[in-house]
Amino acid sequence: MANEEKNQAAEQEARPLPPEAQRALAEAEERRRQQAEQAAKTTQVREVGGRDGPDPARFGDWEKGGIASDF
């Protein structure tokens, strides 16, 4: 049983991909490349009017100007 599975796996690896599959893989690679280029072009949006320093929700710093707040 295990020997048959190994033979089937070897046969599947030896078969060349059909042209449709090769084209689909090339198209997927092109989409990934375009998405990576787009992600590299966009920058992270800065908050307008927000507080300076680390995010209080992430670092637990609820004090600003001597006044502590808790939501």
Q: Which runs of at least 5 residues are low in confidence (pLDDT < 50)?
A: none
Number of strands: 2
Beta fraction? 5-15%
Relative helix content:
55-70%
Helix-and-strand structural type: mainly alpha
Q: What general form does the structure show?
A: elongated
Q: Over the alpha carbons, how many angstroms does the gyration radius reach?
A: 27 Å
Main pleated sheet: 2 strands, antiparallel
Span of the ends, CA to CA? 62 Å
Q: How many DSSP helices?
A: 3
Q: What's the SSE pattern?
A: HHHEE
The largest sheet has its strands arranged as: 1-2
Mean pLDDT: 77
Question: How would you portray this structure in words?
Answer:
- The chain is built from three helices and two strands.
- The chain has a domain at 1-39.
- Strands 1-2 form a two-stranded antiparallel sheet.
- The chain is mostly helical and 71 residues long.
SSE map:
Layout: H1 2-14, H2 19-41, H3 56-59, E1 63-64, E2 67-68
Antiparallel strand pairs: 1-2
Structure keywords:
single chain, 71 residues, mainly alpha, two-stranded antiparallel sheet, 56% helix, elongated
Question: Quick summary of this structure?
Answer:
The protein is mainly α and 71 residues long. 56% of the residues lie in helices and 6% in strands.
